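User: Before I run my own analysis I want an independent prediction to cross-check against. Here's the chain; please return only the structure tokens and, at the end, one sentence I can use as a sanity check.
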Amino acid sequence: MKKNFNYSLDYIFFFIGSFFALLCNLFLGYFSVEDLGLFNKSYAIFIILGHLFLFSSHENIVKNLPVTEDRVKYLSSIYFIVACCCVLSIFFLIFINAILSNNALFNEINLFFLIFAIPFFIINKVFFAVLNADKKFHLYFFLNCLRPILIFISLLILFYNNINISNVFVITEIILLILNMCLYKKFKIIIKINKLEFNIIKKIFIFNFLSLPHSLLSYSFLRIDIIVLSFFMSLEELGYYSLASMIIEGIYQLLTMMRDRLNPDIALKLYFKKYKLNLYYKKIFINVILFFIISLITYFIFFPLFSYFSNYDYALSKNIFLIISLGLFSFSISSSFEHIFLMNNKPHYQSLYIIFGNLLNIILNIIFIEKFGLYGAAYATSVSFLFLSLIIFIYASRVSKQN
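Assistant: Structure tokens:
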């Protein structure tokens, strides 16, 4: 009973966060499709750059902190790498702000505030990763659900004061960082400079470097279509597509919630050669059922009602949602094992897997958008989901047979 309550509480946190993430899109979609397009384009760039300079540190922590022999030495070493990444991100964004601020991709985005938002995002993600690795799931999911709540509140303030809505992310990350500092003792993080060890830093760097393509591109996967569309479509057209895309991302994040809970357990079972795929059939079934219920409600109830009450007809968004959902269904079956390569200490496999998926997605986007317009981006993403889910499930089954 207590275990079921623990799962239920985590899902409550998730749904609260997802509700406010949806509210951000609904609010902007009701008043301005152009602002909706700008918001989601800004968010895509923010997340992609954030995970580029996060340098896969959060995944390293989830994989290695539970089994490390010297916690202080490990955390001191990985925080040294995180500090270096933060400094690099600042210099990189200053350079981008100086030469690309007028580029079509960054049109109307306040790049200056991204200089501060990205380092704060990196630090916050690393804090959250420590909670995940230590299996403090309640606090982990609670803090994660705060981000969309803070984004929504900040968005309201910026929108009604006619301030550039792309500034919303730096405000949110500052508040989260302050909160993390207040809860610092909960993280059990002890960092000592004299505990820095070159060999550990080297191992962390190599692991992070090999898994960086996955870390970066897995979070970029659902945003590649928005980035590519930015070069072909107006902000209004981007707004229609992004509404469907962001709802899909919300469902995807629901699926990855189970993944985040299982990652530490899978890592330990693989470490002790006790991993079996059939141990997780119940979790897979839960993910598939949740996907079906939410997708049906979204398609048959949400889109018709929102089109009726809003100032726009979102039939186009509804059709795009259906197309991408067909591919995401297959992914709901294998999403719990999305990090199986990392958990099995094969970061290069994880990177190759996601590089393939993103290259396929980019190529299909470019080909299909030219031919089918907005629908082409949806076709590309759906097909890419299908191929990635097959790769994950085949590998997870093979590893299960070997243990």
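Sanity check: Residues 2-402 form one domain.
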